[in-house]
Please model this.
Amino acid sequence: MASSTYISDLLRREPSKTFWGRLKGGDELSYPITLACTVSILLIVALIVAELWSHSQATVQKFGLGFLTSRTWDPNDGVFGALPFIYGTCVTSAVALLIAIPLGVAAAIFLAEMAPPKASNLLTFLIELLAAVPSVIYGLLGIFVLLPIIRDYLVPALRAAFGYVPLFSGPFYGVSLLSAGLVLSVMVVPFIISVSREVLLAVPTDQREAALALGATKWETTWDIVLPNASTGILGSVFLSLARALGETMAVTMVIGNTPKIAASLFSPGYSIAAVIANEFAEASGTLYISSLIFLGLVLFGLTIVINAIARILIIVTTRTAA
Amino acid sequence: MTQEISLRRRITNVVMLSLTGFCTVLVIGVLFFILGYLFVHGARSLNLAFFTQLPKPSGETGGGMANAIVGSGKVLLIAVLIGVPIGSLAGIFLAEYSNKTFAFTIRYVVDLLNGIPSIVIGIVAYSLVVLPMKHYSTLAGGVALGIMMIPIAVRTTEEFLLAVPNSLREGAMALGATKAKTIFTVVVPAAISGLISGMMLNLARVAGETAPLLFTALGNMFWSKGWLQPVATLPVMIYNYALAPAEDLHQQAWAAGFVLLALVLAINITARLIIARGPASSRR
Amino acid sequence: MATPQQPALKDITSAPASNAAVSRSRLCKLSAKNINFFYGSFQALYGISLDIEANKVTAFIGPSGCGKSTFLRTMNRMNEALRNTRVEGELLIDGENLLAMDVTYVRRRVGMVFQKSNPFPKTIFDNVAYGLRVNGVTKKSVIEEAVERSLTHAALWTEVKDKLQKPATALSGGQQQRLCIARALAVEPEVLLLDEPCSALDPIATLKIEELLFQIKDMTTIVIVTHNMQQAARLADRTGFFLLGKLIEIDDTRTIFQNPAKKETEDYVTGRFG
Model:
């Protein structure tokens, strides 16, 4: 009985409403602290934008928007133009997606529609592990494994087949837009597979059953019914991969050739926005040089934000309609 | 006639379906060929000196990356100290306190932060830490990686807390627990295995980041003198050595790649197994 | 060690109240005065007024969606955890308006057991000790004693005394629900609210819970929501019938089931609708 009175004494008291009394409940601490952390994220993002903006002002004032369309990048003469990097970024990303989309979507179809669930889950697990491999390792492998293969097998084959097209002509030294695109494609494929598979799995089973019941083959069901249902989501995964490819730095830097020129041929070396920042930032001297690199960072930032936003909206739209 | 069409349809069916299977095999084959190559090549280049010795001056062979291993650890420690508290407390706010519109806005901003290329985060850490302190430093590298950890920390925390059934919150509150005590004594412990593995995945993700370290932590051929000095890290060493014109350094790069990858994959596999088994598991 | 039979809460129920309600407080533990409740713009309760008698079992019956659970959750202010809700009126506990009190204090005095058992993913011991610890009880001996006493009251002690450190989620459904009752009893609530506590249980587990509720009613005042009229008839001293957010009538259980005043009640208890 003694303990019971003790408990009663302790619990039958209304908590004090003074500041310290309320502090003991914890809400007076936990709410403001967690809120502060949340708000600090907003501040960090604002700070990122502000830093990029203010540190790129020198370039904005000197070159204006002409910076984006100028083809010359010559730090020694103090002339800076972004076009070679924008070109290189776009070309490598395009090559990457052209290879990765068909392969990735086909593999996702196989994993979602064909493979037995256990095998599918295991393979997806492995594929998702591949998405976790650091990009510098893809770069390492790109230099020492992919480049020789591309040089010895792929380029001669492409030359033989399409040598008359400017895209596939000219000398090949190993490092090139093509190599960067290929390395990027290897990097984004796991991404496309895992997101597309999720989207495909979200398509309701009754849609498949309805088509199969009407006598459609498995392939016809997949192609005519399931894919259209999932197309927006798959497009979302493509945009996500694109954003990733555009901002990818290390692997590209290691195999693209780091030459600021615009060449029609995929065989020639190029440069990407992320690569030029990675390569030259630490050694850049002079306000204008640094500010031009930071302005390139701002461009990259804007580009990825727009593309990410599109991707999110597409994915939200599909998961909503599927649910 | 009908027979013929149905034959054509059957052939299309088989051909296309096999094609998707072929693509899967191709993708997985290529990827595993590459990684297998790394493991074989890397393991062969690995030796004890790699873990215990400093890099040798250029021209000499041998040496190791002891300073880079420790350096990576130090940078990651700072990153965790910055990214995990901010991110997970914000995740708690979103899951437990926030109203819908505010949570939606924050989620959007967090996704935005997550989408910012790592090289851009590097620039920002440079201008925030390196410029004012006039030094490349461990701290600057840690700040860059810490900012990169925040978005995933927020989203995993929020997801795993939302997966905790509401009945547990009600049960605690019905016993006279305040909201804060409910969160920290019932909800968070119920989700703890998911939270820990989420943070492990988060750590593994930034452990391999190179770009944001290039001009924050920079690099160092020797032991770093304190937290405000340049420091060597594994990913940056891989990058530098892979591009260096010496076969011996390439071997070192392979060894470092092997160590880094083994670490990242080990963390990933452990964390994913915990999530798959955990009581409060939630598929994304 | 306190013996289970000793009514630990008796002295509290009769102790306080220096106000006018003192004469009624012996009989009437909780008293609702014209309670209206809103989910956003939807009104779920219309002018509920009733008295809950001390140390009696009161049952609320009615078809689903009639507001009986909503009213129960208003009595320890659990509905406040939901967004966009509003309550009007007065709820008196021993003559004091509990809507104006500190909410954690209210919930300590008015405990609740839910429809679906919700043990925390902790050990059995930690589950029962939770309410004490979270409210500032730190003495180990006190907690151990309270855990044993509560588990005994909940008719679970003999089954779990050798596995107190095992996870609570390993128990069977009926055991889990009794654990939740023990957990609620550990803080010695003056009123215990039960929201369809047996709806997910088999008949044998249900019987066990009904027996233990019968045992503990001299310690605490019990209010139970049930969709099972036999259960109300078996357990309750008094029964209230809810329909469409209104309290149709509340009276002695026997009267409600055999000779109700209102036609709606008669229709419901004789199975003509609902």
Residues 90 and 246 of chain A are 7 Å apart (CA to CA). Chain A touches chain B through 86 residues (CB under 8 Å). Chain A has two domains: 15-52, 65-322.
